[in-house]
Write a structure and sequence with these properties.
The chain has no helices and 40 strands. By secondary structure, the protein is mainly β. A hairpin with a 7-residue loop joins strand 14 and strand 15. It is globular and about 70 Å long. It starts with a strand and ends with a strand.
């Protein structure tokens, strides 16, 4: 039984700088608050062919202890109304089969249906997790002809499997990623890449089983089998949470958890299920923004030429700042854009590419409001050009409601408008959080702000030297390898001599007149 209510609240109209204004025909003066149950958490947004917005996330009653979360997928029309012909009053709500705690990680629209990936757990089954890929028909009903009564799942290497993301590729195949733990002895997480046909059956042309695992101890891809691999500690390993289709390959990224900290990592797989021979290195590339701390990829985007990774770290250098790393399709690190706001703790939740612009956003927390149970108090996003130069008019940091805890989770872009989705506390009785949506215009009249990124370095990758585009003092430069160790180097005017550096990835840290960092590769 779905408890569903739509709350329309009058807000003062907000202008989004020069980029556009709220569209009053959406919800109430451009805003909509949606209440499904006591605890409503938006995970993301996507859109269909008719510019309806598909939203998805997790919901639950407010109970003590571990919450019995359900997944939900809903549909809003351009006016901000729930599509009553979709599922049950506009909302599909369910648990994964035989699991009482369910969560969704990603949903994508396709002309044949809505495909999604998530996780099911049971509190009584310790240290176990099931990965599910499901499909809804376009009317919001579960497609019982997909896989096994609507869901594909497998034990893969063992009982503990973590979902990441999924896409529908240009050949109309479902590609998903995550991790799997071999519970026959290793208890270590291995990155998992799978491909299904649209009917939910494994695509046996991807490798030989439709599922591939990267054994990073041996440095090889294997078709998944229930076999023992290398001994290690449970919890460590590689987790994939993002997929991009790049020409005839799949770009995958996530984190490498090693002991007390995690590194960012990414890799490239051909559509035949082999390592991409044109990528900078076989296997995952690991690097750290803040060496020795936890580094995460939260979102990714591809603009047809370059890849953009939205990242977070809890380290001393960039904690509370939004990080956007640009790399090319061969895996070579390029510009890093650091976005910060004085007195604000910024969180990156989404990165989007649209019309030669890159949008990065999430939510802010004012330093003065930090306290127990408070995570955010403002929605935010920023627009950049493809060189990661800021665009004036696309710089938004605003409270959407008068509630204490609120923030944006995702953004979906259309030809002339956008929908921003997130959450807000609504403490009434047992109710805790509701969903919040806004619709606003996307204007074409934008310009580049004055605070351009001034520093570039080339060639990258380098073999002998790295040349900086502006004069710098040697005393303002530090170079750190991926293990967090500081490197000694020699300086030749604007050049750094790299001939003594071992092959690999490095971070160039600058301080003084400008504070920036650059990633570079030594071949």
């Amino acid at each position: 039984m779905i408890r569903l209510s739509v709350i329309l609240i009058l807000f003062p109209a907000l202008l989004f700088g020069q980029s556009g204004e709220l569209i009053p025909s959406f919800g109430n003066q451009g805003k909509l608050i949606l209440d499904i149950d006591d605890l409503d958490n938006l995970v993301g947004l996507c859109s269909d062919d008719d510019e309806n917005t598909i939203f998805f996330g997790n919901t639950s009653e407010n109970l003590i202890g571990e919450y019995p979360y359900d997944i939900f997928i809903g549909k809003l029309n351009s006016s901000g109304e729930l599509d009553q012909s979709f599922a049950d009053q506009g909302i599909f709500r369910a648990d994964f089969p035989s699991h009482s705690i369910s969560s969704i990680e990603k949903a994508v629209y396709h002309s044949s249906g809505i495909y999604f990936i998530g996780k099911g757990r049971n509190p009584a089954s310790s240290d176990s997790s099931k990965l599910f890929v499901g499909k809804l028909n376009l009317d919001g009903s579960l497609d019982l002809n997909f896989a096994d009564n609507g869901y594909f799942t497998d034990s893969f290497l063992g009982a503990y499997n973590t979902p990441g993301s999924l896409i529908i590729d240009q050949e109309n195949r479902i590609v998903f990623c995550g991790s799997t733990t071999d519970d026959q002895g290793t208890l270590v997480e291995y990155p998992l890449i799978g491909r299904l046909n649209l009917d939910g059956s494994p695509d046996l042309s991807f490798g030989t089983t439709g599922v591939i695992v990267w054994d990073y101890h041996q440095g090889v891809l294997i078709d998944y089998m229930h076999v023992n691999l290398t001994q290690d500690r449970h919890g460590e390993g590689l987790y994939l949470n993002e997929i991009l289709e790049i020409n005839n390959t799949y770009f995958l990224c996530g984190k490498y958890l090693l002991g007390a900290f995690s590194q960012v990592h990414y890799m490239s797989i051909t559509k035949e299920g082999e390592m991409n021979p044109n990528f900078i290195s076989p296997g995952p590339i690991n690097f750290q923004i803040d060496p020795g701390y936890n580094n995460y990829i939260t979102s990714s985007a591809f603009d047809g030429e370059n890849i953009y990774l939205g990242m977070l770290t809890d380290g001393e250098l960039y904690n509370g700042k939004q990080l956007l790393q640009k790399i090319d399709t061969n895996g070579v690190l390029s510009t890093l854009r650091v976005i910060e706001k004085e007195g604000q703790d910024l969180q990156t939740k989404f990165v989007k590419s649209w019309d030669n612009r890159i949008f990065i956003g999430g939510y802010d927390l004012s330093d003065e409001n930090i306290g127990p149970g408070v995570h955010s108090d403002k929605f935010s996003f920023k627009g950049l050009d493809t060189n990661l130069e800021p665009l004036s008019g696309f710089n938004f940091h605003e409270s959407i409601t008068s509630n204490e805890d609120q923030g944006a989770e995702d953004l979906v872009l259309y030809d002339n408008h956008a929908i921003l989705g997130g959450y807000a506390n609504d403490l009434v009785g047992n109710n805790i959080t509701d969903l919040v949506f806004m619709s606003f215009k996307m204007d074409e009249d934008v310009s580049i702000e004055e605070d351009k990124l001034m520093l570039q370095a080339y060639p990258n990758p380098c073999t002998e030297h790295l040349e900086l585009s502006i004069p710098m003092n040697e005393s303002n430069i530090r170079i750190i390898n991926i293990l967090g160790q500081e490197m000694s180097f020699t300086w030749e005017e604007s050049r750094i001599n790299c001939q003594s550096f071992p092959k690999g990835a490095y971070v160039l840290l600058l301080s003084g007149a400008i504070d920036e960092q650059l990633k570079f590769i030594v071949e």
